[in-house]
Write a structure and sequence with these properties.
Blueprint lengths: L3 E2 L9 E3 L31 H8 L4 E3 L2 H7 L7 E3 L1 H7 L4 E6 L10 H13 L4 E6 L3 H12 L3 E7 H6 L1 H9 L3 E5 L5 H9 L7 H13 L6 E3 L6 H7 L1 H12 L7 E5 L4 H15 L5 E7 L4 H4 L1 E6 L8 E6 L21 H8 L6 E3 L1 H15 L5 H20 L4 E6 L7 H8 L10 H8 L10
Parallel strand pairs: 5-15, 6-7, 6-9, 7-8, 10-11, 10-15, 11-14
Antiparallel strand pairs: 1-4, 2-3, 4-5, 12-13
Helix pairs in contact: 1-10, 2-4, 3-15, 4-5, 5-7, 8-9, 10-12, 11-12, 15-16
Length: about 450
């Protein structure tokens, strides 16, 4: 009885897959705040040229540099595991598999893009990187990657997560980075928020504003900004997950899965697992692909497809995406990595084209699912991953009711060993379902910029 499938080091994918090459209709271009189409060179103050080239590339396959592969090979390929005990507990005819990204040094999928981003920055002479982080997974990953290439790293961490997950800060410090709660007094954007809301719990949008401002403030040009999700090149780097999974499913004797599930905030984990399979769906495969987001921050399921800023202060270009409005302040849930007002343009466009079936789930159901997973499969997952687990359980129960065999593949994006405060509050009965009120949504969407064509 096979429990898991690994791959040999020689089977590590040597190219990333670029969904932009196959997406029907393509992507709408980013725009400047005055509505003009953004020129690639306008990104040069924030990103190195190789990443800008990947951001706009229409090339289907992009080579992974040997220096990047050498580091990724320390933990990749990651295992694909069959969740047999969960299947038995649910008494389902479904076969459930999960791609375990928690085995990386930072405990999540995030190093898959942190390593190449640090590499390309080192290549062009960058000395320092700035970034934001929600739950701390991305900040930890970029701190790790920066250490591998001798770069300084400054992380702005959403304040609510900074206070609830203190050991994420310690991880970053261990790898040599600095970690500041956001909003902070270090930037104009942070000071402006604090002047109006001194007790602000922060948001990814605010932290992005601070990190972008800190990068632009370096007149020497030796500081760049790094983003852990949303942008095309980030989605690209993560596809190594799905490419491995396709080969591993074959070793289990499975063909194309019936259902693919992953949590989604900005889109990186979901894209990494699903994009290689979306290619198959575009080519005619019958696959149900489900991104799962928090009910308290439902950018795809309740947001508007529009041009919007990627940050709260309006310092980024305008992206065509599903958004709740860049001024949206999400409730301080434990799934801090999913508390983002917008969605990656590639994920948004795939949703618009009917290739995805997004779902939103409340956090009590998610924690309940995570506990059941821990008591069967043994892994304590991050609150973000618990959204995927909750949807998996829904699908497995549906398969039982329909008396139908099906193959379910989901992404285990990270472990929850530094998120135990959330579990403690769940067991104490202190976790509450957080919902987005309609008047709050209308007020936030009213902040959408008027630049760009109507969508």
């Amino acid at each position: 009885m096979r429990a898991k499938v690994g791959l040999k080091d020689t089977q590590l994918p040597r190219q990333w897959y670029n969904l932009a090459a196959d997406l029907p209709g393509g992507l709408l271009p980013p725009r400047t705040p005055d509505g003009n189409i953004l020129k690639p060179e306008q990104l040069s103050a924030l990103f190195p040229e190789p990443l800008i080239e990947q951001e706009i590339s229409q090339q289907r396959w992009i080579d992974i540099p040997e220096e990047v592969l050498e580091i990724l090979a320390r933990w990749r390929p990651t295992p694909l595991v069959r969740a047999r005990k969960l299947e038995r507990a649910l008494n389902t005819p479904a076969r459930i598999y999960y791609k375990n990204e928690s085995v990386s040094p930072a405990g999540s999928h995030k190093p898959n893009t942190a390593v190449p981003q640090a590499y390309y920055n080192k290549l062009v002479g960058t000395k320092r990187l700035t970034t934001e982080t929600g739950a701390g997974q991305w900040g930890s990953a970029l701190s790790f990657a920066s250490a591998q290439f001798g770069l300084e790293c400054q992380v702005f961490m959403v304040r609510s997560s900074y206070e609830k997950k203190p050991y994420r800060k310690v991880m970053m410090q261990t790898w040599g980075a600095s970690c500041t709660p956001s909003p902070s007094p270090l930037t104009r954007a942070g000071r402006a928020i604090l002047s109006e809301h001194p007790d602000s719990p922060g948001s990814l949008g605010i932290a992005i504003s601070e990190a972008v401002e800190a990068a632009l403030a370096d007149a020497s040009g030796q500081t760049h900004y790094a983003l852990g999700s949303v942008l095309n090149h980030v989605m690209l780097h993560q596809t190594i997950i799905g490419l491995e999974a396709k080969r591993q499913l074959m070793q289990f004797g499975e063909k194309t899965p019936d259902t693919i599930i992953a949590c989604v905030g900005g889109g990186s984990n979901f894209a990494g697992l699903s994009f290689p399979f979306i290619k198959e769906k575009i080519e005619g495969a019958n696959i149900d692909i489900v991104p799962v987001e928090p009910a308290s921050c439902p950018s795809i399921t309740r947001g508007l497809f529009a041009y919007d800023f990627g940050d709260t202060a309006g310092m980024t270009p305008l992206l065509a995406m599903y958004t709740l409005g860049h001024t949206f302040m999400p409730s301080p849930s434990h799934a801090g990595g999913l508390r983002y007002h917008g969605m990656a343009p590639l994920v948004s466009e795939a949703t618009r084209r009917g290739l995805l079936r997004p779902e939103a789930i409340s956090q009590v159901e998610c924690f309940s699912a995570a506990v059941q997973f821990a008591r069967t499969e043994g892994i304590i997952v991050a609150p973000e991953t618990s959204h995927a687990v909750a949807q998996v359980i829904r699908e497995a129960i549906r398969a039982k009711e329909e008396k139908r065999e099906k193959v379910i593949l989901f992404g285990l994006s990270g472990h929850g060993l530094l998120d135990l405060q959330g579990y403690a509050e769940y067991f104490a009965g202190e976790i509450k379902n957080l919902s987005l009120q309609e008047d709050e949504l209308k007020q936030s969407l009213a902040s959408l910029p008027n630049a760009g064509p109507a969508l």
